[in-house]
Amino acid sequence: MKIVANNKKAYFNYFIEDKEESGIELLGWEVKSARAGKVSLVDSFVFFGREKGEKEGNIQAWLKNAHFSPFEHGVVKDQEVRRDRRLLLRRAQIEKFYRAVMTKGVTCVVTKLYFSKGGYLKAEIALARGKQLHDKKQVIKERDLNREAEREIRGK
Questions:
Q1: How far is CA 2 from CA 46, 90, 100, in A?
Q2: Residue 7's Cα: distance from chain center in Å?
Q3: Measured in Å, how far apart are the chain's first and last C-alpha atoms?
């Protein structure tokens, strides 16, 4: 498993509750860009809705605001770097996440992108509950204390 991108900001801003693996529907140049490691998940999230123009039908999961850098050796001129990408989930998984997101204070974020053993790009999506300011300060405080303790241990 080769990790392409981590969403460290999601772990800092949210309490991560439930994780699932999902496939992503990508274009060829996006896969090549991911293999080169030129993907950013900062400010990306999962949106549940229907395709544009559809009034009825099944709800689908979409990866929004993920940045895939343009592939410079490609022939495609219109490489839209922040387009919506469909996530490939089973119906039961989509319904489970959709019901959870409808409750107040819960969102769905992508925590990491990686290549599976079969060579497919997979996304780890998670239900997340927002942290308050005092929770974030506590995380920073604990991190600083651990860093100081490690320095003292190495110094002795």
A1: 22, 24, 29
A2: 6
A3: 37
Of 99, 35, 24, nearest to 66 (Cα)? 24
Rounded Cα distance, 39 and 37, in Å: 6
| DSSP H stretches of helix in the chain | 8-13, 28-35, 91-102, 133-155
pLDDT at 147: 92
Q: For residue 18, give both structure tokens.
A: 């439930």
The per-residue pLDDT for range 40-50, each reduced to its tens digit, is: 888 888 888 87
Residue pLDDT, tens place only, 63-92: 888 888 887 776 666 667 778 888 898 988
Burial of 48: CB neighbours in 10 Å, binned 0-12, 13-18, 19+:
middle
Query: How many CB atoms sit inside 10 A of residue 117's CB?
Result: 7
121 Cβ contact partners less than 8 Å away, ≥ 6 residues apart: 4, 23, 24, 26, 31, 34, 113, 114, 115
- pTM for the predicted model, two decimal places: 0.75
Token pair belonging to 139: 């995380």
Task: Identify the pLDDT of residue 49.
Answer: 81
